[in-house]
Each structure stands twice: as C-alpha cells, then as structure tokens.
Specification:
heterodimer; A: Amino acid/polyamine transporter I; 18 helices; about 80% helix; B: 2 domains; flat
C-alpha cells in the first residue's frame, strides 16, 4: 500500500512540475525555433544538398552554443526586470545605447524583409501571389498581438513552433539509410577542410545566433513577468528550444541530403521545387515549413524591435496592453511589418542585396551585443549571486569569441565572395 | 485650402518633432553616465569593440564605394 502511495505522490509531484513548466515555458522555445527562420532553413537545405549527412555532427554542436548565449539573457532579464536595449543604455551610456538600438532596428528591418522574401517564395511554390502572402501574413501577425494578452500570443507562437517540426515526419517518409545518417554524427570534414566547407560551417553558425535573439528573449522574459525563482524553469525552456532547433536543422539536412545530394541549392523555395519533382508531398512540406519558418522569424523580429524602442523611450510596451494603452509600441510594430512587406512587393527591389546586407549589418551588432552580455553578466552589483561563475565565463567567452571571429569571416566572405576562394552566399 | 492644410500639417509634424527631440534629450540625460564600473577589462573590451566597428565600417564603406563607382 505504502508503495502505491509513494508512486501516487511521485506522479503528483512530477505532474505538478510538468504543469509549472508548461505555464512558464515559452520564450526559450519560441526564440530557439524562430532561430530556424527562412534564412536558416535555406542554409540547412544547402548544407544537406552539398555535403549530405557529413556535417550533422556540427549541427549538434550548435545547440549548446545557442543555449549558453541565450541562457545569459534569461538571467539578465529575470534579475534586472529590464529588456536588453534598456540594459545597454543604463550600463554603457547613451552612445553605445543609441548605436545598439539603431543598429538593431536596421538589422531587424532588413531581416524582416528576408523573412517576407522567404514566405512569398514558399507560397509562390503553390502559385499564391506575393501580395496575398504579404497581406495574409501581416493580418495573422496583427491578430496575434491585438488580442491584448502576452499569454495568448505566446501560445499561438508555440503552435507555429510545433509546425516547424514538419521536417521530422518528412525525414521518416523518405526512409534515409540509418547507418549513414549515424555516421554523420562522427566529426569530420568531407574532402578535408576546404574553403567551401569552412564557408558552409560559418553560414551555419551565422544562422544560429542573431542579434535579435538576445534582445527578444530578454524582453519576452520581462514581459512574461519572470522572477529569479523562475530561472531554472526558463533554463529548461531554453534547453528544450535548443534541442528543437538542432532537431529541425538535422532533419532538413537529412531530407535534402537524401533526395537532393549534389544539387546546388540557392534558396529553400528552390529546394522545395526540386523536391516536388522527386516527391510532391515532401516538396509541399518543405515549402510549408519554409513559410512557417519565415512567419515565426517575422513574429519575433518585429516584436524585438518594438520592445526595445518601448523600453528606451519609456512607452508602455507589453503585449498585455491594449492598443489604446500602448499606441507607440503597436505603431512601431506595424510600421516595421508594413514597410518590410511593401519593400518585397516593389517590382525590381534589390532583394538579393538586402539579403546580403542582413549578414553584414548583423555582424556590426552581434559582437557588440554579445560582448555587452558578457560584461553585464559579470557585473556583481547588477547580477548579485546570478553573475557568471568562472566556469560559465570560460564557456561563454570561448563561444562569444568563436562566434565573433567566424561571423566576421562570414560577413567578409559575403561582401567579397572570392576572398577565401569561396562561392556566393546562398540566398 | 491647401495652404491651410499645409499649415496644419506643419504644426502637427512640428509638434511631433519637438516632442521626439524632448524625449531624446530626456533619454540622453537619464543615461548620461554609464553605470557599469569601468574596470581595466571593461575599458579594454569597449576599446576593442570601437576598433572592430571602425574596421567593419571602413570595409562597408569601401564595398559601397567600389559598387557605386
């Protein structure tokens, strides 16, 4: 009897923990899954098509990399109760503050344009006109924020995150050779460490950490009202998100590595069309996944900018506020969305150039954003007992330095394609 | 009629610009002094960042000029 009682209490304890996790989870999973945006899916598709399963091991490494960086934003947000933009202004003064805010808005706007490009291209596979895609997407995003509750917005975003897992059943449909896929987990460089492979690795790192992710998660943690005691739960949330992001990346690589090996991929929409010739259902899944990836990216990026402006200008800036209570916050949100959508519809707009400049401008902000993060997390006055430990500093500084070096090399390669004897950036 | 509309527009835009300038001045005053202790490590890191950003700006300017010219 006592055994049954013990089992019952154990079940109750774990059920309560799960319940609590479901209530508190959100920002981590959303930011990590949204990280696999339209550009990310394109990069993974190109990686699989070019190198098959050989670089799966590298994608596995990207999970911890993203986790450690984002975990710092969780602690900073929960302890300071301030967004990242406000934290930079407060700790580093107005010069660094304005630089970070304006650069963030510029990078985010350019990234938003690329998300719209991805979404219109994805639905273009089904012959949906671009203007319909832009209007529908903007309406979906408007409905998501205008209902007036952070909780509802988060749950809808999580639903889109679940849709991002569409690539997993895709991989099971095609029955990839399991031993070969497992061999991809062993570190190695197919054909040696060539410039081409180095470029592909840099592209994968470039899509894993973006400046908006740092700003977004910290603001989301604050908007959700998380406290210091919630940090362990938000860590689990971020960890689960990083697992999802790696899983999606791996399964995209498996799909394109199995069916499109040797095909030169320049965009995920092109990969969808190529897949449709092999398997119509898979091509359609990939296109839907690409659309969803772009939508998730757009949702998070537009909010990251609006939150940051709200924090610095002192406007009401919570999704729990109605439009009347936070007019500037929503005006900023819709201005970003509307202008990015319109640019995609302009005939002859320099979309390829915009995609190129996203990568380059991101590299002007990313090192600053990550360096500020490390410095803030080492400020005892600000963080108290939540400041970085020696071990955390070792890991985080190593990651940040690696990201800065590799993303800078990636941006230089994007600007000067022949610099390291590499090809053009996949768009 | 058009002149009146333009005047009205000017007043509204003018008031918004004035409001924005006031707000920016307020922000500049509020965050004028950085709160992070300027230890040698922080000073070194921020100096390094300045050089890095200067380098990236030069590269971007070079690329832009080489494309335009």
């Amino acid at each position: 009897m006592s055994f049954l009682v013990r089992i019952f209490y154990l079940y109750r304890r774990w059920a309560k923990k799960l319940q609590l996790f479901l209530i508190l989870s959100g920002p981590g999973i959303i930011v990590m899954v949204a990280d696999n945006d339209a550009g990310g899916i394109t990069t993974y598709a190109a990686t699989g098509a070019k190198y098959g399963y050989d670089l799966i091991w590298f994608l596995v490494l990207l999970g911890p990399l993203a986790y450690f960086v984002q975990e710092m934003t969780v602690r900073l947000g929960a302890v300071t109760k301030r967004g990242y933009a406000e934290s930079i202004f407060d700790s580093f003064g107005v010069r660094w503050g304005w630089f970070a805010l304006l650069d963030l808005v510029l990078v985010n706007w350019l990234t938003l344009v690329t998300e719209y490009i991805g979404m219109t291209a994805a639905l273009g596979v089904f012959h949906v006109p671009a203007w319909i895609t832009v209007v529908v997407v903007t309406m979906i995003m408007a409905v998501m924020v205008l209902q007036g509750r952070y909780w509802t917005w988060e749950k809808i975003a999580l639903l889109f995150c679940a849709l991002n897992l569409v690539y997993i059943p895709c991989a099971f449909i095609i029955h990839p050779p399991l031993p070969e896929v497992l061999r991809g987990l062993a570190p190695g460089f197919p054909g040696g460490m060539t410039n081409q492979i180095f470029f592909m690795l840099m592209a994968n790192i470039g899509t894993t950490i973006a400046p908006w992710m740092v700003f977004f998660q910290q603001s989301a943690v604050v908007d959700k009202g998380m406290q210091e005691k919630d940090i362990p739960w938000e860590r689990v949330d971020t960890f689960v998100g990083s697992l999802f992001t790696v899983l999606v990346a791996i399964f995209v690589v498996i799909v394109t590595g199995t069916l499109l090996r040797g095909v030169e991929i320049n965009s995920a929409a092109q990969a969808s069309q190529a897949l449709m010739k092999v398997n119509h259902l898979l091509g359609a899944f990939l296109a839907v996944g690409l659309f969803n990836a772009g939508l998730l990216g757009a949702i998070c990026i537009s909010l990251a900018s609006s939150w940051s402006f709200g924090e610095v200008f002192g406007w009401a800036h919570s999704l729990n506020h109605r439009v009347k209570e936070a007019p500037w916050f929503y005006a900023c949100y819709f201005l970003l969305l509307g202008s990015a959508g319109i640019v995609v519809l302009i005939p002859g707009a320099p979309l390829v150039l915009i995609t190129l400049f996203v990568q380059v401008f991101a590299v002007t902000l990313l090192p600053a954003a990550l360096t500020f993060l490390i410095l803030l997390l080492n400020n005892e006055e600000l963080m108290g007992k939540y400041k970085n430990t020696l071990w955390q500093n070792l890991v985080n500084v190593t990651i940040v330095v690696a990201i800065i070096v590799l993303s800078t090399l990636y941006a230089l390669t994007a600007l000067f394609p022949g610099l390291f004897g590499t090809a053009a950036v996949p768009v | 009629m058009i002149r009146e509309l333009l005047a009205l527009f000017e007043i509204h835009v003018g008031s918004y610009v004035a409001m924005a300038r006031e707000r920016i001045a307020e922000i500049n005053a509020r965050y004028a002094v950085p709160r992070i202790p300027m230890t040698p490590a922080v000073r070194f890191t921020l100096t390094f960042l300045r050089f890095y950003l200067f380098f990236m700006t030069c590269i971007l300017a070079y690329k832009f000029l080489s494309v335009v010219l």
